[in-house]
């Protein structure tokens, strides 16, 4: 049985409350309610067992909102048309479904004012295409972890929404710094590195009831290609910006010469004939497998370990390029 410190929940709830204590004009621009306005309708489709889903549920209680159910594109569109929600939290894969689906033309989606995306990186290209299709919907990115009991950073004002590609500013009580992953030395602004966080909502660690720590696996996703570090998310964003590709995930594949090479699992759009040689030019992708779907958890997170295991097995629909 897991034990949760009450302090974590208090700190996370306080930070959430502070995030919504902003001027009324910003409240309106972001689709948020105040004590003098009617409660919003939130079409929330996240699983409540993870931090994001739980924070959505807490938000609904805090602001007196109404929640919806599981994300299935046509059911969601029907619900938006019927219940007129102002706000909807989604994952990047759901953002892709919304801007790509032709079903959106069949329903009245004008009630949507604010969509918040979290759970995985959202590419700038996808964000731009979404806002072009839904110009009246404010799109905000939020970053959080189960280990931080919810949000680490979010967008709180209309001005912050203009910073495409950012996840916003740190929530209250949270501190952060970027360090060199090898030397652990702090890096100046504008440099990429490892994110270190400190705050009262952060968990103490993974231990059992007797205090023992268990290491299950290494979750680092960075691909080391000829000593060059490649972030899979960058390649994935490029791939899904192609209209012929519905979804894509990049994982490391062992290579005797390079150490690791990027391998892409690609889901074609219906009617698409995109080939592995057309996928290859996307920045160092050296191996391609076309699949019918990408395995994801109930929270919408990609099950990369399953794909890594699949990559290591011999498959007839895998090609080197």
TrEMBL record:
<dbReference type="InterPro" id="IPR045851">
    <property type="entry name" value="AMP-bd_C_sf"/>
</dbReference>
<dbReference type="InterPro" id="IPR000873">
    <property type="entry name" value="AMP-dep_synth/lig_dom"/>
</dbReference>
<dbReference type="InterPro" id="IPR025110">
    <property type="entry name" value="AMP-bd_C"/>
</dbReference>
<feature type="domain" description="AMP-binding enzyme C-terminal">
    <location>
        <begin position="234"/>
        <end position="301"/>
    </location>
</feature>
<protein>
    <submittedName>
        <fullName>Uncharacterized protein</fullName>
    </submittedName>
</protein>
<dbReference type="Pfam" id="PF00501">
    <property type="entry name" value="AMP-binding"/>
</dbReference>
<dbReference type="GO" id="GO:0016405">
    <property type="term" value="F:CoA-ligase activity"/>
</dbReference>
<dbReference type="InterPro" id="IPR042099">
    <property type="entry name" value="ANL_N_sf"/>
</dbReference>
<comment type="similarity">
    <text>Belongs to the ATP-dependent AMP-binding enzyme family.</text>
</comment>
<dbReference type="Pfam" id="PF13193">
    <property type="entry name" value="AMP-binding_C"/>
</dbReference>
<feature type="domain" description="AMP-dependent synthetase/ligase">
    <location>
        <begin position="51"/>
        <end position="206"/>
    </location>
</feature>
<keyword id="KW-0436">Ligase</keyword>
